[in-house]
Design brief:
Elements: H1 8-20, E1 37-40, E2 43-46, E3 53-56, E4 62-65, H2 73-81, E5 88-92, H3 98-101, H4 104-109, E6 113-117, H5 118-124, E7 128-129, E8 140-141, E9 152-154, E10 157-162, E11 165-171, E12 181-185, E13 190-192, H6 213-226, E14 232-234, E15 241-242, H7 243-265, H8 270-275, H9 292-303
Parallel strand pairs: 4-5, 5-6, 6-9, 13-14
Antiparallel strand pairs: 1-2, 2-3, 3-4, 7-8, 10-11, 11-12, 12-13, 14-15
Bound molecules: zinc ion.
Length: 306
């Protein structure tokens, strides 16, 4: 996959900017690549839309978690229609990043109510100007228009009763950003973690918008405590996982944090820390989608302020 060879944030941001420019969905795609994959009865995962979209179907209607990037908006409806003719009633956003809210407008235009933590709405109202990370320059994301914004917002938690299940949204403060929510389908025993777990590599810690490595590790600990051995975990990006996958991820982050902090205490500069490769071999799931220097950069910046 292209993103494995290029700076991820740059690639994603570039895709976003292309989408804002109104480009059509890539021509070399095939419907199969976007076909919903059943996770358990009544819950599906849609891939390749910029993030993992969870789709809950049932007699009451459709609820989805996140809407992918703006390019995805052109296909989301038709893909969902392959599994349900019912309307999408609710869209739950996990956080404000463009690869999770880009399809909001299309779904909202078709009648869905957008729901998110209140910081998601506040962040979407502002320009997102991400500083360069590990030497990679990022374009500016302009504020979103009203038709993209969540219309129902909550602070700490929300509960939706739909399709004979109970869906709990739980906000975690200062972790991936300051707007992160996980959604827990209690009866189905499925959790969509948003970007509080990426099974395909190191996480982005958005320290410029309330993110924190310590908060991130705490949040993953909390999610683990909600799981049992049968809980199905849909990460923000990457393959579907389980409680053990979360435990392994937490341990990786904790070890990386310890390694980087030790080098900071030895007085090493960011360049020296990056050169000593403190995350070497820590991620076991193949090559991380996010190049390690981009992860080390933000963790170093946060920990060196302590
Ligand atoms: Zn994100």
């Amino acid at each position: 996959m292209k993103i494995k060879r290029m700076p991820y944030l740059f690639v994603i941001l570039s895709i976003c900017v292309m989408s804002i420019g109104g480009r059509a969905f890539p021509q070399n795609t095939t419907p199969d690549k976007y076909a919903p994959v059943k996770v358990t009865d009544g819950i599906y995962r849609i891939r390749n839309f910029g993030c993992n979209i969870a789709v809950m179907i049932g007699d009451d209607g459709v609820l989805i978690i996140d809407t992918g990037d703006q390019a995805a908006a052109l296909k989301t409806d038709s893909v969902i229609k392959t599994i349900s003719n019912m309307p999408v009633r609710y869209v739950m956003n996990t956080h404000y990043h463009y690869d999770h809210v880009g399809g909001n407008k299309k779904l909202s235009d078709n009648g869905a109510v957008i729901v998110a933590q209140e910081n998601t709405r506040q962040r979407m109202l502002k320009e997102w100007n991400v500083p360069s990370v590990a030497g990679v320059k990022n374009p500016v994301i302009p504020p979103y228009s009203e038709d993209y914004l969540p219309k129902i917002c909550f602070r700490d938690s929300i509960t939706i009763y739909l399709n004979k299940d109970t869906i709990q949204g739980i906000h975690f403060l200062n972790c991936h950003s300051d707007s992160d929510v996980i959604y827990f389908f209690r009866k189905a025993n499925v959790i969509h973690t948003g970007d509080l777990f990426l099974s395909n590599g190191f996480p982005i810690i958005d320290i410029y918008n309330g993110g924190s490595i310590d908060g991130y590790i705490r949040a993953v600990d909390n999610i683990i405590s909600l799981c049992d051995e049968r809980t199905i975990i849909i990460p923000g990006h990457g393959a579907v996982s389980d409680r053990q996958g979360l435990v392994d991820y937490r341990n990786m982050l904790s070890t990386a944090r310890t390694n980087i902090e030790k080098l900071i205490k030895e007085g090493k500069t960011l360049d020296q820390v990056t050169a000593s490769d403190p995350t070497k071999d820590l991620f076991k799931g193949g090559k991380s989608w996010l190049p390690a220097p981009m992860f080390i950069d933000v963790v170093y910046k946060e920990l060196s302020k302590k």
